[in-house]
């Protein structure tokens, strides 16, 4: 047996135990407590060491922890010595044996990181022993240790207190190289290599001048010795003769194949002894004495030659080169023999005045782990991964470099003069294709960029066409050659600048930010950049055709855009000619290079706001397309240039032209978007773009800032025009739906009316009856009718909301305490508040304020929602408590106000309140019930809450007759025709009596209400128009805000509380209409597909008919090519053979692949508003509702809104103990749980909690409570400027995401309990026993079941057809063996046996009611013995009977099942249930769509949820 460890998030290790090589299909595993029968698929696993025996508890946990992805990672190995090393000082006390083991542990750790990160650390693996020896001998950070190459530093980082951070190297701002800002152990930052000797020499000279004595050690690699700076620094070091140590890490690599094939420097006992001798103090002192003696006797030159020849004979080939440069050469030394390394370095470090020394160390990059038996780890090296080169992921997406090489090969095949010169640190594997195709035309010069440029110039002068391929940052080192050797002489060299722009995890060191600037300022240079891979191929062809001057083009790192193309062959384009990709009339976006794609994304965002955008691809930075620029200025008022480069690039050239051409003197307003004037640290590409402000959202925001306040009425006009064009269709779409439209109408009516009634009762209590349910219903009806008739977005549902109730309560309290106002002028004063509110809302609409609604991120919405939920709970608690007391201004002598009846009223209130709360919450999940038919479950889920209100209202009339009629207490509100209600219609007449001071004071609450309405109304409209609903008609945010201002004015003048867009009713409205639309489209598409199949139509004909139906239902507009792509693929790839699974099934495939569509119409909104208005006439029935039922409804609204809040989910997460957090991952959970370290989750949640408590505390301030919306507006600035300083951008984006994104659950292994006490383990045992036993104490025998189709056939109506092919004899044999389950039986036997049991139970129960013979009730149970033995076998097969009457509880594990039609149900009803249930699963309670993603692993270094 063997074991393998599977990688899971948060450092949780999973194990799989089975045979080496492959599992058999069935593996029997037995524990001490109960038998298990577990099946595995045939899966190849990596070999590993033997596993020990385990308990049944461990077997269950570990087998359930198998991952789905098939990715296996090494288990965390034991590193006892490394765990004790926190800084280099700890190495001083380790023995030689412990240092060797430490080296193996570091190599093991790096190998584990390599596997997890899919990143090669070969260079660091080669220098592990060298790093350990350096830190053992020298005293960092006093002694300065400099590293030349990035890849060599990881072992150094582990030993200098950054072990945990290495797991997240080059992510989250952590540098992959040595960085001065990161640690004091990094005295100098590693750049592109070859700089450490120069920097080290500078530090050595500075040390000598200041009289200090620290040692300077620089480590270089043989790769960086190709650059001339290394030799320049060595020659200078030899001249100054200052003490420093240069260590050459020779991993035996060379760019030249002949050198690679030549003899290697050997390491043997003789060379080791000689190296020790050369480094010894006595030998070097003797050498210095000999020098002095030979100088005095005049034989110095002869002695020097003898010394050189002797050392050259002993040392390796080329060792005398370093002696010629003035460095004392020692070597070669075995880089993996830590004893030799320490000996040599100690000798070198002991000499204080011997000049510069070069220690030649030979290493192997593919060095394995030594002393494996000495490591208490369980590292299993995956089979097939013999070297770190194999760690590159096998899945490869085509990159720009791939496409560039293919295009270059095509050009080279046409033109025999094309050659390529590559320079830089590493060559991408794509260039090997060109090398293989043209081995004599490809030249890789390594890190010799200066030589590469001049070499290319020479090739061009020789009549060839060189393509000089250099990464952007490496080209900086050859800029002098570009200027003088190429551009000044006008030599046609073609520069292909790779890795241009931001480069993600390689951070600022490899960021190509400056090439546009420094190349475009050269007089003769042509500068261009492609926007996609097709443009890249065209620019390769263009560069090949230019032969009179130099040209350069840049392309980014990463995957291509993915355009539709058949070949990589490009066509030359006209020099200095851009192109327009999309035309609009409001804003022009001029992109350069890869930023054109983000401009297109910005255009998509702006189009939803009714802004028409032109997107142009500049192509050329030099020469500019002057004609294009003038055209954009003439046709637009706003222009934005976008480039992924520094200041001084493309935008500066455009500005230069505009200023000279006089364009900036006219109407054009121009803004440049460039990289910020600072270095952007390591992060993912998307995070870096967000930091730089170059995403589509940032570009759109820049355009909005230009096109908002300076263009008043523009948003309103655009919205009006957009909705006007589809106004007629809005009515036709609703009318044509027929009676189907009543379903969403009644659904939204009940969802809107009940909260309005509850808010009316709350207002009546808070305003002493000045406002009541009559006014809230009237306001909702009036505003709803206006919105449906004249509104922009017909899906927006309006109603009196909680913010209105809160503000009116505050205003009543304020008015009541002012003698000038009092309760009499309360409504007149609120009329003035509404006037000011209306004016503010109209001004916000005029100046396009809805453009900034996106700044209200999820944190603001969830805090506001949580505040409303808490206020609901508070109102429910206050209401229930008030049921125990007498209302104000009531007669205490009345019977119902006596103590016993008040107490009875309170107890009944608790019963009704909690009864409604529990039943309402239960009814919301009716669609997932196992019981009842589909239409009944759907009816209860949709209308269960109002149904429960009716049920509990009816139950309130079931109290005994002796109870006073006023118990339980019911709603107290006037009838519409009472004087108290009729007064509101004449409030406008009293507004003139309000003092002028209070008229202007009304501005303060008006500002708060306007802000609340602006936020609430716009968010409700946004959620009703989420992009996943695929709405085809334009939005109308600005126009709807204008209309809201008008409706607020009308309500204020009529004495009614205003209505605004409400949540979650608005997205619920859209969801119900989506279900309706899908029913209609699906029915017609299924019918057309079946008709075509009956006519034996081809696959193309079947799809063509369905597409024609879809287009017809969409009003003739063709669908997006991606919308029906999956359906087309299902039809075209269907199997025509006899396999039922492979055939095209219209019912199943249309359900799975039909895109979401919404029936955008106005009829349902109008009808539900009218129903709300007619409810006023039924106020007598509404008054029958007990107030306690409304308190229960308040509690229901609060609790029902919590599951959709990530804030609430995070608060719950804080209360989960560390040992139980793995349970969170087993169920569906928000994506931030996996992607954000636990400490950031805690910090962000605590901030939200504290801020929420502050907001909640504000409402308790007597007068200033009216300002409670202010903290929510402050969140905009806090979110933009303060939070990014404490949270990394990627984590903040996840924690404050605008969408609900969740990951599916996966079995997790329970981590060891912190502290590991016995109680924790006992608890887990008890939990396990709870899972494997029934409530009666029986053990559940859990077995596998292989036939999923057999399960279906027992449950669904197609069972007979499915069972035609079932081997019943084999089935019975399996049942006899004890392996069968209920799913092995035909459903009718289960029904018959159950009915027999029910009838017999009723007989037994009836016997107990017989007056005298009831004493004989045990008799029927004794009769069962004979019935079981003689009667039942005549009706039931013995095998079935044995299973149905099994003596043990035996169950099958659950598995996902295919959705089947409802038995006996019609197609439409069944589909309605399915659609609504799916949409319920897709949305949160507040209407947000959930986005299911694959489980994403967060950075390995982060202290995650489990650890």
List the helices and strands and how they pair.
Layout: E1 2-7, E2 13-18, E3 26-30, E4 35-39, H1 56-64, H2 96-117, H3 122-126, H4 128-137, E5 144-147, H5 154-159, H6 163-166, H7 196-210, E6 216-221, H8 228-240, E7 244-250, H9 257-261, H10 269-279, H11 281-297, H12 300-314, H13 319-325, E8 328-334, H14 338-350, E9 356-362, H15 400-414, E10 418-422, H16 431-437, E11 442-444, H17 449-461, E12 465-471, H18 472-475, H19 479-487, E13 494-500, H20 507-510, H21 515-520, E14 526-528, H22 533-545, E15 551-556, E16 579-582, E17 587-591, H23 595-607, E18 613-617, E19 620-622, H24 626-635, E20 638-642, H25 650-661, E21 669-673, H26 685-692, H27 696-706, H28 714-724, H29 727-735, H30 742-766, H31 773-790, E22 798-799, H32 802-816, H33 826-846, H34 858-882, H35 899-924, H36 934-955, H37 979-982, H38 996-1001, H39 1003-1024, H40 1037-1053, E23 1060-1061, H41 1065-1094, H42 1099-1113, H43 1125-1132, H44 1146-1153, H45 1163-1175, H46 1179-1182, H47 1187-1200, H48 1206-1214, H49 1222-1226, E24 1229-1230, H50 1232-1235, H51 1238-1258, H52 1270-1282, H53 1289-1295, E25 1300-1303, H54 1318-1332, E26 1340-1342, ...
Parallel strand pairs: 5-6, 6-7, 7-9, 8-9, 10-11, 10-12, 12-13, 13-15, 14-15, 17-18, 17-20, 20-21, 25-28, 26-27
Antiparallel strand pairs: 1-2, 3-4, 14-19, 16-18, 22-23, 24-25
Helix pairs in contact: 2-4, 4-14, 7-8, 10-14, 11-12, 15-16, 15-22, 17-19, 23-27, 28-40, 30-31, 30-32, 30-36, 30-41, 30-45, 30-47, 31-40, 31-45, 32-39, 33-39, 33-40, 34-47, 34-51, 34-52, 35-36, 35-47, 36-61, 39-41, 41-42, 41-44, 41-61, 42-43, 43-44, 48-51, 57-60
């Amino acid at each position: 047996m063997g074991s393998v460890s599977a990688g899971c998030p948060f450092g949780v290790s999973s194990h799989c135990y089975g045979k080496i090589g492959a599992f058999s299909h069935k593996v029997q595993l037995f524990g001490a407590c109960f038998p298990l029968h577990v099946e595995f698929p045939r899966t190849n696993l990596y070999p590993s060491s033997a596993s020990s025996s385990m308990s049944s508890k461990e077997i269950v946990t570990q087998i359930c922890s198998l991952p789905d992805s098939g990715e296996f990672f090494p288990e965390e190995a034991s590193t006892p010595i490394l765990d004790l090393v926190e800084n280099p000082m700890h190495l001083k006390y380790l023995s030689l044996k412990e240092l060797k083991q430490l080296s193996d542990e570091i190599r093991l750790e790096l190998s584990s990181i390599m596997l997890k990160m899919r990143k090669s650390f070969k260079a660091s693996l080669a220098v592990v022993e060298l790093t350990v020896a350096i830190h053992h001998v020298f005293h960092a950070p006093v002694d300065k240790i400099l590293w030349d190459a990035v890849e060599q530093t990881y072992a150094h980082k582990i030993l200098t207190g950054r072990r945990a951070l290495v797991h997240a190297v080059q992510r989250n701002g952590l540098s992959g190289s040595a960085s001065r800002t990161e640690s004091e152990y990094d005295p100098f930052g590693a750049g592109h290599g070859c700089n450490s000797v120069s920097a080290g020499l500078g530090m050595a000279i500075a040390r000598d001048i200041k009289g200090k004595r620290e040692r300077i050690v620089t480590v270089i690699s043989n790769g960086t010795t190709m650059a001339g700076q290394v030799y320049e620094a060595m020659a200078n070091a030899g001249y100054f003769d200052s003490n420093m140590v240069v260590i050459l890490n020779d991993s035996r690599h060379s760019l030249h194949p002949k050198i690679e094939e030549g003899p290697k420097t050997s390491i043997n006992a003789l060379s080791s002894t000689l190296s020790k001798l050369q480094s010894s103090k006595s030998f070097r002192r003797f050498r210095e004495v000999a020098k002095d003696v030979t100088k005095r006797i005049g034989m110095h030159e002869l002695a020097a030659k003898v010394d050189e020849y002797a050392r050259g004979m002993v040392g390796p080939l080329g060792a005398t080169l370093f002696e010629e440069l003035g460095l004392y050469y020692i070597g070669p030394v075995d880089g993996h023999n830590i004893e030799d390394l320490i000996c040599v370095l100690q000798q070198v470090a002991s000499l204080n005045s011997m000049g510069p020394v070069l220690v030649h160390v030979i290493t192997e990059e593919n060095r394995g782990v030594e002393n494996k038996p000495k490591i208490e780890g369980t590292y299993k090296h995956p089979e097939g991964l013999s070297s770190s080169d194999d760690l590159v992921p096998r899945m490869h997406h085509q990159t720009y470099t791939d496409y560039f090489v293919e295009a270059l090969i095509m050009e080279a095949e046409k033109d025999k003069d094309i050659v390529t010169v590559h320079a830089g640190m590493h060559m991408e594997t794509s260039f090997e294709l060109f090398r293989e195709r043209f081995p004599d035309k490809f030249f890789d010069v390594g890190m010799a960029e200066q030589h590469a440029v001049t070499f290319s110039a020479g090739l061009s002068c020789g009549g060839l066409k060189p393509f000089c391929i250099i990464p952007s940052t490496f080209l900086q080192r050859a800029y002098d050659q570009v200027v003088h050797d190429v551009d000044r002489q006008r030599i046609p060299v073609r520069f292909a600048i790779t890795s241009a722009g931001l480069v993600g995890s390689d951070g600022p060191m490899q960021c190509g930010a400056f090439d546009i600037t420094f190349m475009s300022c050269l007089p003769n240079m042509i500068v261009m950049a492609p926007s996609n891979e097709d443009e890249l191929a065209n620019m390769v062809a263009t560069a090949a055709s230019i032969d009179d001057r130099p040209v350069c083009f840049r392309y980014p790192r990463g995957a291509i855009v993915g355009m539709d193309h058949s070949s990589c062959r490009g066509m030359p384009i006209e020099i200095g000619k851009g192109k327009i990709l999309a035309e609009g009339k409001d804003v022009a976006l001029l992109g350069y290079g890869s930023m054109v794609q983000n401009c297109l994304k910005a255009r998509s965002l702006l189009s939803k706001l009714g802004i028409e955008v032109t997107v142009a691809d500049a192509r050329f930075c030099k020469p500019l397309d002057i004609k294009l620029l003038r055209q954009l200025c003439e046709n637009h008022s706003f222009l934005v240039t976008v480039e992924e480069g520094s200041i001084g690039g493309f935008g500066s050239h455009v500005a230069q032209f505009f200023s000279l051409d006089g364009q900036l003197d006219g109407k054009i307003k121009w803004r440049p978007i460039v990289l910020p004037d600072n270095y952007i640290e390591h992060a993912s590409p998307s995070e870096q773009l967000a930091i730089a402000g170059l995403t589509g959202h940032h570009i759109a925001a820049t355009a909005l800032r230009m096109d908002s306040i300076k263009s008043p009425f523009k948003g309103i006009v655009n919205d009006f025009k957009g909705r006007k064009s589809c106004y007629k269709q809005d009515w036709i779409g609703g009318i044509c739906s027929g009676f189907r439209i009543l379903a969403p109408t009644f659904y939204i009516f009940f969802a809107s009316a009940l909260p309005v009634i509850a808010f009316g009762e709350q207002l009546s209590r808070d305003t002493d009856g000045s406002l009541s349910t009559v006014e809230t219903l009237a306001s909702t009806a009036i505003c709803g009718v206006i919105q449906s008739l004249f509104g922009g977005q017909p899906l927006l549902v309006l109603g009196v909301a909680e913010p209105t109730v809160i503000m009116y309560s505050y205003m009543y309290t304020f008015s009541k305490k002012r003698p000038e106002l009092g309760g009499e002028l309360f409504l007149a004063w609120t009329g003035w508040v509404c006037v000011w509110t209306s004016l503010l809302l109209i001004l916000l609409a005029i100046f396009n304020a809805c453009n900034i609604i996106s700044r209200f991120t999820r944190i603001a919405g969830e805090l506001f929602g949580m505040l409303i939920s808490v206020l609901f709970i508070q109102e429910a608690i206050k209401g229930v408590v008030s049921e125990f007391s007498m209302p104000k201004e009531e007669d205490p002598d009345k019977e119902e106000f006596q103590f016993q009846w008040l107490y009875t009223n309170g107890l009944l209130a608790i019963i009704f309140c909690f009864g409604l709360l529990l039943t309402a919450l239960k009814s919301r999940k009716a669609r997932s019930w196992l019981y009842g038919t589909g239409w009944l479950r759907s009816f209860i889920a949709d209308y269960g809450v109002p149904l429960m209100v009716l049920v509990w209202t009816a139950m309130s009339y079931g109290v005994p007759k002796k109870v006073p009629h006023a118990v339980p207490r019911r709603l107290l509100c006037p009838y519409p025709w009472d004087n108290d209600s009729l007064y509101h219609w004449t409030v406008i007449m009293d507004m003139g009596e309000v003092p002028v001071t209070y008229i202007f004071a009304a501005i303060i609450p008006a500002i708060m209400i306007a802000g609340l309405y602006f936020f609430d109304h716009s968010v409700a409209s946004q959620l009703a128009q989420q992009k996943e609903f695929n709405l085809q008609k334009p939005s109308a945010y600005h126009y709807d805000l204008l209309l809201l201002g008008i409706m607020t004015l009308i309500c204020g003048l009529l004495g009614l509380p205003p209505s605004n867009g409400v949540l979650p009713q608005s997205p619920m409205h859209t969801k119900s209409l989506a279900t309706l639309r899908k029913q209609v489209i699906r029915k017609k598409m299924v019918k057309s597909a079946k008709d075509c199949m009956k006519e034996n139509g081809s696959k193309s004909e079947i799809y063509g008919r369905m597409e024609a139906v879809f287009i017809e239902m969409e009003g003739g507009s063709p669908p997006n090519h991606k919308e029906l792509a999956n359906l087309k693929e299902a039809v075209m790839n269907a199997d025509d053979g006899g396999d039922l699974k492979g055939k095209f099934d219209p019912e199943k495939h249309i359900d799975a692949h039909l895109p979401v569509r919404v029936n955008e119409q106005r009829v349902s909104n109008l009808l539900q508003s009218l129903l709300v208005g007619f409810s006023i006439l039924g106020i007598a029935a509404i008054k029958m509702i007990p107030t306690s039922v409304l308190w229960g409804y308040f509690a229901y609204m609060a609790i029902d809104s919590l599951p959709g809040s990530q804030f609430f989910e995070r608060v719950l997460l804080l209360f989960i103990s560390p040992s139980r957090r793995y349970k969170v991952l087993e169920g569906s959970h928000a994506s931030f749980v996996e992607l954000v370290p636990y400490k950031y989750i805690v910090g962000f949640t605590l901030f939200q909690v504290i801020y929420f408590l502050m907001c909640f505390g504000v409402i308790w301030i007597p007068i200033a409570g009216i300002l409670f919306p202010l903290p929510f507006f402050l969140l905009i600035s806090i979110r933009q400027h303060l939070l990014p300083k404490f949270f990394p951008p990627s984590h903040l984006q996840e924690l404050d995401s605008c969408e609900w994104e969740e990951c599916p659950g996966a079995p997790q292994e329970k981590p060891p309990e912190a502290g590991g006490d016995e109680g924790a383990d006992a608890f887990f045992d008890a939990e396990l026993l709870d899972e494997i036993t029934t409530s009666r104490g029986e053990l559940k025998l859990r077995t596998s079941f292989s036939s999923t189709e057999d399960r279906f056939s027992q449950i669904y109506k197609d069972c007979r057809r499915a069972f035609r092919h079932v081997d019943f004899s084999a089935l019975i044999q399996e049942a006899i063996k004890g392996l069968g389950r209920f799913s092995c039986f035909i459903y009718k036997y289960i029904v018959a046996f159950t009915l027999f049991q029910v009838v017999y139970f009723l007989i037994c129960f009836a016997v107990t009611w017989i007056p005298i013979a009831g004493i004989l009730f045990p008799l029927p149970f004794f009769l069962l013995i004979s019935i079981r033995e003689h009667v039942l076998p005549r009706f039931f097969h013995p095998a079935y009977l044995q299973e149905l009457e099994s003596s043990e509880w035996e169950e099958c594990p659950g598995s996902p099942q295919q959705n089947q039609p409802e038995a006996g149900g019609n197609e439409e009803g069944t589909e309605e249930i399915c659609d609504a249930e799916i949409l319920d699963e897709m949305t949160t309670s507040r209407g947000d769509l959930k986005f299911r993603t694959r489980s994403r692993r967060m950075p390995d270094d982060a202290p995650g949820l489990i650890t």
